[in-house]
Design brief:
The chain is an alpha+beta fold. Helices cover 52% and strands 17% of the residues. The protein has helices at residues 21-38, 51-81, 96-100, 121-124, 139-167, and strands at 2-9, 12-20, 91-92, 106-114. Strands 1-2-4-3 form a four-stranded antiparallel sheet. Helix 1 packs across helix 2.
Length: 168
């Protein structure tokens, strides 16, 4: 799997993801094994269905799920590695599955991405005066609030002791 990024402008770019058969086969085989253990098809014991039959029945869905997971993982890993934040939705540029079908050995996906601008606070605050207020709290209010907290703590302690007595 190969992921390339082509910047179109400062906050807009295109990501290209190339998937090969070697990328897809392990995921497809692991999903087939999971389905094989659970499949109940007439004429076969549970867990005894041949993988070739399961591939004929469910192969395209399994491969489509594997492609979707790999593409999603590669886009997420690119965004995480490069510390980018998306704006809006990811837009698909092409549809290789529609063009090539599910039997192709390699796929190339292209998506357009819009990124959030990097905030520059230094220029935003330039020429702005910030006002700092110093608040004076009267000593009587502090004592009153402290007494209120003490009273509520005593009530909680009594309630806790009563609950322990009731539970025993």
């Amino acid at each position: 799997m190969q992921t390339d990024f082509l910047p179109l402008d400062k906050q807009h770019g295109k990501i290209q993801i190339q998937l090969t058969k070697q990328d897809l086969d392990p995921m497809v085989k692991s999903e087939l094994k999971k389905i094989k253990n659970k499949a109940q098809i007439k004429g076969f014991r549970q867990g005894g269905v041949p993988e070739s039959l399961l591939m004929n029945l469910y192969g395209t869905e399994i491969k489509a799920d594997a492609i979707q997971k790999l593409v999603q993982q590669s886009v997420e890993s690119y965004l995480k590695e490069n510390n980018k934040q998306l704006v809006g939705e990811i837009m698909a540029v092409n549809d290789p599955i529609g063009q090539l079908g599910m039997s192709a050995d390699a796929y190339q996906f292209e998506f357009e991405l819009g990124f959030a601008p990097d905030p520059d606070i230094s220029t935003a605050l330039e020429g702005t005066k910030l006002v700092r207020y110093k608040i004076q709290i009267p000593e009587s209010k502090l004592k009153k609030r402290s007494a209120s907290y003490s009273q509520s703590m005593v009530i909680w302690k009594i309630a806790l002791k009563l609950s322990k007595l009731v539970i025993k």
